[in-house]
Design goal:
The chain is an all-alpha fold and about 675 residues long. The protein has 28 helices and no strands.
Length: about 675
């Protein structure tokens, strides 16, 4: 008990400062002595209880058939029952003469209960002792979770909960999930988004949320989701009877999205366990987001085994939002410590959502990462790439190497800017080892497409084309350089600004050419039957894009690059196993010649001559030769007097080539057309 508190009547009335100082020192010494005595007594009490439990197991296990009559085991059972009753405020003790308030601290009682729970052999030796878990301990826990009092008591309570859930699930099946939901409810306090100013105050009672979160995280991650698996097994629902997985995912997402909350620590920091959290006196505001991330990580790892699709999509959407927010804050703060954990979790989440067929949610995650990557590359090109941006790109490219063959054209179109920005950066900046690694990953991504199914390759090409078109339209509207735009009758936008960096325009052309040329040069033996052919709709989309650029772009280099790509791909398509008709392959050149740029028309005619010279034997059928003759005829019809001479000179070379090599293969009608053209 100690001495009674000092009152005003017990304090000396002398005004002597030395007397007052002496009294203060005496009181301080007395309080220290009282504290030492209390700690000694509590340690002795805890040790005696542990000795009783140990004795109960060692001697009681010798005669398990009569456990109810065994003295030592009976004493241990009565002691444990009294401790449970005392923790819950129940005065029906068998050993202790319990009172209200209890004669010892509740935190001390909970520590002793934890010690007992850790002695699994003791409970294995006594079924009646295990019954007390459900009959006495669980009700006490429910009560304490609503009114636990101070920080020390809450910490001790959470330790009891962790041991009870992880070691004795089979004995408390019906109560197990209710306790978990109780933890979630405790975490919901102030979980809703608040203003940055409110969070910046770092409330001193944040431990009221942190401790339940630490307990839930440890329980969820125990045995790689063993507790969640057993709940599902019992209730035959992946969410459990009370949707514990969804609720846990929701509340952790809310905290991670809350203003001012940043995962600045690694999830493998010392505060990764509840005991470490309790021992940590400072930095609670740093430990909280890491602990919430641990909850989310445990759920994602568990769902990667049991199935993502069984959890409602709205919970995954909230988790994705929270993770994207964390990535943004970590990049903003140039914080690397927690970024690896967050990005590792996003990669696992994307892969799991892909397996579950949740394409929109998967793309939501990838899009969020891409936005952060692009925003991080808007620094001056002379500067080194921020390490956090490097890690984001590593996560994006690593994920795409795994799930890229499952994405559709809309997905690739969305990611176009991020991939293009990295490609642009790699050409315009001095690359260090980390940046070079990213460039290698980017090249690997486009190289591996040769192993993808036909539909996956087609989706990538379509996405690159759509992304390129959007980029060109954006550049045309940008404030850099002249803004005058023009459009052809089909609505294609002209890019009027030659001041834009060359690489930013050519990314789409170069990568489309790379993927399509690899496709066209694959051997027929490398492709399953009928899967190596190029869909005619894809070819028309591709050639239409190249023709649009080659015919109306205001930048000469850009126009000629598109025409060169068109001719090379047409040559590969004619001589390979594209499955396309020769008329479909050679016709696009005719469309370029309807433009007004002399250099484009000359380049197109030169390309046609090159095509006939290298692959002319594969031009089959009247429709194909008719398309060739139309292109040669347009070279003259669409030119004024000043430009007719160079065009006619180039076209006449092709007419001569046809006469020398292909006249015998022409039909009567097409030979008549050739004579008219001559």
């Amino acid at each position: 008990g100690g001495s009674p508190p000092l009152t005003s009547s017990s304090v000396p009335t002398s005004s002597s400062s030395s007397g007052a100082s002496s009294m203060d020192n005496s009181n301080l010494s007395g309080n220290v002595m009282i504290g030492v005595i209390e700690q000694t007594v509590e340690a002795a009490f805890r040790q005696i209880c542990n000795d009783i439990f140990t004795s109960g197991f060692e001697k009681g296990s010798q005669n398990l058939a009569n456990e109810d009559e065994h003295l030592h085991l009976g004493i241990a059972r009565s002691l444990f029952r009294d401790l449970c009753c005392m923790s819950g405020g129940d005065g029906s003790g068998q050993i202790f003469l319990t009172s209200s308030p209890p004669p010892v601290r509740i935190a001390l009682v909970l520590h002793v209960i934890e010690d007992a729970l850790r002695s699994k052999e003791l409970f294995a030796a006594s079924s009646s002792l295990r019954k007390i878990l459900k009959e006495r301990l669980c009700p006490a826990i429910h009560k304490l979770m609503k009114s636990y009092g101070d920080r020390t008591t809450l910490g001790a309570l959470m330790r009891v909960v962790v041991n009870l859930e992880t070691l004795y699930f089979s004995d408390i099946v019906e109560d197990s999930e209710v306790i978990l939901v109780g933890l979630v409810r405790m975490m919901e306090t102030d979980a809703s988004p608040a203003s940055t100013k409110e969070v910046a105050r770092a409330p001193s009672d944040l431990w009221r949320v942190l401790y339940p979160a630490g307990a839930l995280s440890e329980i969820i991650q125990y045995g790689e989701g063993e507790i969640l698996s057993r709940i599902i097994e019992v209730f035959e629902l992946v969410e459990g009877a009370t949707n514990i997985i969804g609720l846990s995912l929701e509340v952790s997402s809310k905290w991670l999205a809350r203003p001012g909350v940043v995962c600045s620590r690694s999830i493998h920091h010392d505060t990764s366990t509840l005991l470490a959290l309790i021992r940590e006196k400072e930095g609670v505001d740093h430990a909280l987001p890491t602990t919430m991330l641990g909850i989310m990580q445990g759920i994602v790892h568990f769902c990667s085994q049991s199935g993502f699709a069984e959890v409602a999509p709205e919970y995954w959407a909230k988790a994705i939002d929270a993770l994207v927010v964390q990535v943004h804050r970590l990049v903003r703060d140039h914080s690397i410590a927690g970024l690896d954990d967050v990005l590792g979790l996003t990669k696992l989440l994307i892969t799991g959502l892909e397996k579950a067929g949740m394409q929109e949610l998967r793309m939501m995650m990838l899009s969020g990462l891409c936005r952060q990557a692009v925003s991080g590359l808007r620094e001056p090109l002379a500067s080194k790439m921020d390490p956090s941006v490097i890690k984001i790109y590593e996560a994006i490219l690593g994920t795409l190497l795994i799930v890229g063959n499952q994405l559709n054209d809309a997905h690739w179109s969305t990611m176009f800017e991020a991939l293009e920005s990295l490609d642009w950066y790699s050409q315009e900046s001095q690359m260090g080892p980390d940046e070079m690694k990213l460039k290698e990953l980017l090249e690997s991504l486009f190289s591996v497409t040769t192993q993808w199914p036909r539909e996956s390759r087609a989706s990538l090409i379509e996405g690159l084309i759509h992304g390129s078109r959007m980029q060109l339209e954006s550049l045309a509207r940008s404030s850099i350089g002249p803004l005058a735009t023009r459009a052809d009758p089909a609505g294609k936008v002209t890019v009027p600004n030659p001041g834009i960096r060359r690489s930013r325009r050519l990314f789409g052309l170069v990568r489309v050419h790379q993927v399509m040329s690899a496709w066209l040069t694959r051997k027929a033996s490398d492709e399953p039957q009928n899967t190596g052919t190029v869909p005619s709709s894809l070819w028309q989309l591709l050639t239409g894009h190249l023709v649009s650029i080659g015919r109306i772009s205001d930048e000469e280099e850009f126009r000629l690059e598109a025409i060169t790509s068109l001719v090379n791909l047409s040559s590969l398509a004619l001589g390979g196993n594209s499955g396309l008709s020769s008329s479909l392959i050679v016709s696009p050149i005719n469309d370029i010649l309807s433009g007004s740029y002399l250099d484009s028309n000359i380049s197109a005619l030169q390309g046609l001559h090159q095509l006939l010279e290298s692959q002319g034997e594969f031009v089959k059928g009247d429709s194909s030769w008719t398309a060739v003759f139309q292109s040669l005829q347009m070279a003259v019809q669409n030119s004024d007097t000043s430009s007719a001479e160079p065009l006619v000179a180039v076209a006449f070379r092709s007419i001569q080539l046809i006469a020398g090599d292909f006249l015998p293969s022409l039909s009567v009608d097409t030979m008549r057309d050739w004579m008219k053209l001559l």
